[in-house]
Amino acid sequence: MLTTTLHLTLRRAVLAAVLAASSSLALADPLGYHVEIDTSAFSGAGFLDFAFIAGNSPAPGASATLSHFSGAFGALESQEGSVSGSLPGSLTFGNSGAYNDWFHNVTLGGKFGFNIVFGGDFLNTSGNAGTTFGVGLLDATATSYLGNINGNLLQFELTPLNGGLPASIAGSTYASIATISAVPEASEWMMLTGGLALIGFALRRRQSVTPA
Q1: How far, CA to CA in Å, does 40 sit from each of 112, 143, 144?
Q2: 187 close to 194: Cβ distance less than 8 angstroms
Q3: How many whole angstroms separate alpha carbon 117 and alpha carbon 90?
Q4: What is the mean pLDDT of residues 197-211?
Q5: Spatial contact of 75 and 105, defined as CB atoms under 8 Å apart
Q6: Residues 6+ apart with CB under 8 A from 109
Q7: Rounded to an integer, what is the distance from CA 6 to the centroid of its chain?
Q8: Is the pTM of this model over 0.85?
Q9: Residue 81: which of 59, 57, 103 has the closest Cα?
Q10: d(CA 13, CA 72)
């Protein structure tokens, strides 16, 4: 009886520790996000403009990797600065250039989506200038913005370490047609899966115990 009680207590302690770790990971600033843009209110040809631009003073290195593209993307119109890759594969932006931009033809009328993961020295290097990643939607003439007449549909602000303040990533949307959601990293999924497995194991063990 004593041995069974000790085993049960140990399992509960391990389960509590795993769930506590999962909670802390969920509360931390994620590095990966999923972006979706709904262009159903528009039709015809247009452009999606992806730009990754550092602040005026030297900014710590940063990168943005885009993947898992969906939607009616056409041909590349232009690219400039530190950008590599291709659609429908992945794109990697750096912030070393003055202007790092990917300008792509699209057919409006449906939804566009992609995942984005940020990384780089800004996470552990102090600095006074950050880097901005923005996405704008333009009409067929490439002269007028759609969804937000003032510019980008959404932006991410990457802020480096500054004094006692940690680095941060803040995402904002400026139009109802754009949404941003966090994408858990693989380590977080593994931790969560481990916690759920322990819960299932504990429940099965509890059900298998015959009351005295």
Answers
A1: 10, 20, 17
A2: no
A3: 11
A4: 56
A5: yes
A6: 39, 40, 42, 43, 44, 72
A7: 42
A8: no
A9: 103
A10: 50
